[in-house]
Amino acid sequence: MFFGMARFVDSPKELWESIAWASSIRCSSGQYGYYPNTTEPVFPSDLVRFKCNDTQCLCQTMTQKPHLGQIVAFGRDFRTYREHSSPEGSIVLKVQRFQLINQFLSRPTYQNLTLDPPPHSREFIMLDDTIDVVPEELIERLTDITVYFDYAFRSSVQLPSDRSTDSLSPNEHI
Ligand SMILES: [Zn+2]
Prior knowledge:
This protein has one domain: SH3 type barrels, CATH 2.30.30. Helices cover 5% and strands 30% of the residues. The protein is built from two helices and ten strands. The chain has helices spanning 19-22, 101-104, and strands at 6-8, 33-34, 41-42, 47-50, 67-77, 90-100, 124-135, 139-141, 146-147, 172-173. The strands form three sheets. Strands 1, 4, 5, 6, 7 and 8 form a six-stranded mixed β-sheet that branches. The mean pLDDT is 90. The structure holds zinc ion (ZN). The site of zinc ion has 6 residues, from loops.
């Protein structure tokens, strides 16, 4: 019987090689990745900043803050080709990247797209096609901004905790 963190491999066959195992802290038998220089584990759904594996990306310099994203899975990386420089078997996090929607809409593909209502200037979207595999030492806990998830967009249900985007303070994003 297998115990421990999920394994990312070239050809997954076993349950512990699946994204289901890698996205659950119940399955990892108390084994986790940790934020650098802490004893604080990184859990799926945590919001984080991270440096990507593109050595030409501005996140590698001090001119741009690291990327923003949400942890979707964690495990040990045994794949033959790894996009990061950590050794085989090292702990990695799979991170779904966030992007400011106005940056996303500036891509040539979307330049003629008009959203109704128009996006808020501090509104992010989660990129389905951009999952980064990041060694644990390149993850930072998100502390410089507050992010609210809008689960009720265009819903007719008004919850007491719903907030207007007009009331966002400068370090708050949706
Ligand atoms: Zn980057």
